[in-house]
Specification:
Helix 3 crosses helix 4. The chain has one domain: Cytochrome c-like domain (Cytochrome Bc1 Complex, Chain D, domain 2). Helices cover about 50% and strands about 0% of the residues. The protein contains four helices and no strands.
């Protein structure tokens, strides 16, 4: 009986955790949409860009994969979101059609950019 009760408790916790994760995903997708991020970025790898061209910016799963486990990645990427990136130092060359990330301080608050980046970094394929 105790084992059955523990299994049911764990199953219930998994459902609650899954619901919470889905709510976070929905909140972050809404923030990204409202801030204009989804104009250039997709969430999943392999999504096409406009008019069949290469995507404008990298897919967030690709970003998460590239920065997975790198110390300070969240701080660095938050700065890139807010201040933009250097078109001469792009490590996405030949993978995307955009040259650089434009500064987005007018489109998203720093606190929201931090939340979004932390979420993006969780999207690395397992």
């Amino acid at each position: 009986m105790k084992a059955l009760r523990n299994a049911m408790l764990l199953a219930g916790l998994a459902v609650v955790a899954g619901s919470a994760a889905a709510a976070v995903d929905d909140d972050m997708k809404a923030l990204a949409s409202k801030s204009g991020c989804l104009t250039c970025h997709s969430i999943e790898s392999g999504a096409p860009g406009p008019n069949g061209m290469a995507p404008i910016g990298p897919a967030w799963q690709d970003v998460a994969k590239m920065y997975k486990g790198k110390p300070g990645a969240d701080t660095f990427l938050t700065r890139v979101v807010l201040e933009g990136s250097n078109p001469y130092g792009s490590h996405w060359k030949d993978q995307v059609s955009g040259l650089a990330m434009p500064p987005n301080k007018v489109a998203i608050k720093e606190a929201d950019a931090k939340k979004l980046v932390k979420w993006i970094l969780t999207l690395a394929p397992k």
